[in-house]
Design goal:
The complex is a heterodimer of chains A (137) and B (135).
Chain A (H helix, E strand, L loop, with lengths): L5 H28 L5 H10 L3 H29 L1 H5 L1 H28 L3 H7 L3 H8 L1
Chain B lengths: L7 H7 L3 H30 L8 H8 L2 H29 L4 H27 L10
Helix pairs in contact in B: 2-4, 4-5
Classes of the chains: A mainly alpha (137), B mainly alpha (135).
Chain lengths: 137, 135
């Protein structure tokens, strides 16, 4: 499929992250927009999203945002500057480094919230059996 | 067909139609705006506070601010337009040999996205009654 070098991986990941972000944005708009359908409806969805795998998934969403944003800037530099074309490969490695750093920041802030028994986590995830077992223990 | 250009001049030469060139420029301008809008949105609502903070009452309270509504309106419309046009590029590439599939996949995709867009805009501007104390 992709036999090219870095440029084609950059292109492939840009499309993949873009599609993932569109899918996330549609779900996110529905779940947050459902605030107008009343407290019960909104909170049902909100509690489902409190499940630990969805919370971990959000770190991935943040990573996809970072990659797509930084690579988008790389594309613009390539389109509008000559030096951007010359160092496009190096720029891509820069994009990867920045995306990893941004994902790490999201993880550093959110992993403790997800796995520590802080009051917020206990309150919100106590409706699902996995988290409840953790809290009881 | 998506433009695969390496400069604005190339894009102009390759564009089969004027709208296609406009979309090429739009993707870059909206992209730059979205980098700033999205990063700030994530930082404010996901990094410095947990996403779990956003229960029903908090979102209602947030929507009480006009500036928040306008910010989210910009984020929603720019994000969905940018994303939908990106999806169009992907569909065009994936269905290059199948115009019938292209038509139906696009019809389905645009319908779903259109409904969600209207839903999202309504949610921003429909006034939700604030929760009554003690409820």
């Amino acid at each position: 499929m992709y036999k090219g070098r870095e440029g084609q991986w950059a292109f492939f990941l840009h499309r993949l992250s873009g599609l993932a972000l569109l899918a996330y944005l549609l779900l996110h708009t529905f779940s947050i927009g459902s605030v107008m359908l009343g407290e019960k409806f909104y909170m049902t969805i909100h509690e489902i999203y409190g499940f630990v795998l969805f919370r971990l998934g959000l770190i991935g969403v943040a990573g996809a945002v970072a990659y797509h944003a930084f690579n988008g800037i790389r594309i613009i530099l390539i389109d509008f500057t000559d030096w951007g074309v010359k160092i496009q490969r190096q720029l891509w490695y820069g994009v990867l480094v920045l995306a990893v750093i941004a994902t790490a920041v999201a993880a550093v802030y959110n992993l403790p919230r997800i796995f520590d028994n802080d009051p917020l986590t206990m309150r919100q995830t106590s409706s699902n059996p996995v988290a409840l077992a953790k809290v009881v223990r | 067909m998506a433009i695969k250009a390496r400069s604005f001049r190339d894009a102009k030469a390759q564009a089969k139609s004027n709208p296609e060139l406009v979309w090429w420029v739009f993707m870059r301008l909206s992209g730059m705006a979205l980098v700033v809008l999205t990063m700030f949105h994530l930082f404010k609502n996901y990094i410095i506070v947990s996403e779990l903070e956003w229960d029903w009452a908090s979102v209602v309270g947030k929507y009480g601010e006009v500036t928040e509504r306008l910010y989210l309106l910009a984020l929603l419309t720019l994000g969905l337009t940018h994303g939908t046009n990106g999806l169009r590029y992907v569909i065009d590439d994936a269905t290059a040999k199948n115009p019938v599939a292209r038509f139906w996949i696009k019809s389905l995709a645009y319908s779903v996205i259109g409904v969600i867009l209207i839903f999202g805009i309504l949610a921003l501007f429909v006034n939700v009654p604030a929760p009554t104390p003690g409820q």
